[in-house]
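Need tokens for this chain, all 199 residues.
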Amino acid sequence: MLALYWGAALVTQILSDAPALQSYVSNRLLYFNALKIEHELLSGSGAGTEILGLIAQATVFDSTRVNTATDTFIDVLGIAITQCAESLFEPDGVVLNPKDFSRIQRIKTASTNEYIFSDPHSAGTKQLWGLPVITSWSMPESQFLVGAFRMGAAVWDRQSATVEISREHSDYFVRNLAAILCESRIGLTVYRPTAFIYG
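Here are the structure tokens for all 199 residues:
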């Protein structure tokens, strides 16, 4: 839930222009509401009304499988995909911080200095080891989440995002204030924690 408290000497006049403001305010509140949902689905702590996110419920990556002398971050992701597949649910995605995926895209060969994973002249599909890569600022840098998202979990969208405005809260009427509220009802169920690997 996001709330914007809006105070102005001419709030009544501003509200009378609601049709002109609706697109401006609604688009931004809906965007930030979606960012909040994304953050909670990934990193939510479960405290209070916050969703217990995928990271908190995922299985910890088995780092003993890594050869620290030779394995790169990309190798680690490949090993994590195998660990996820052992849940008997087929992994179907990787979540990375945008900075980490950018580093992967910029890897070059030592001999010819050519890009390995991408061509800077074209917008290629974000993919590693045959799986789509989803980049999110809600994923901590240098961390990853590999998962069987379709089979391993479900998101319950109980109420689409709504935007409401009111002057009836507390003493807002006499103080000439208005509150704009954007909220949704979302739930998350993780059916098999071993189908999500975090490391």
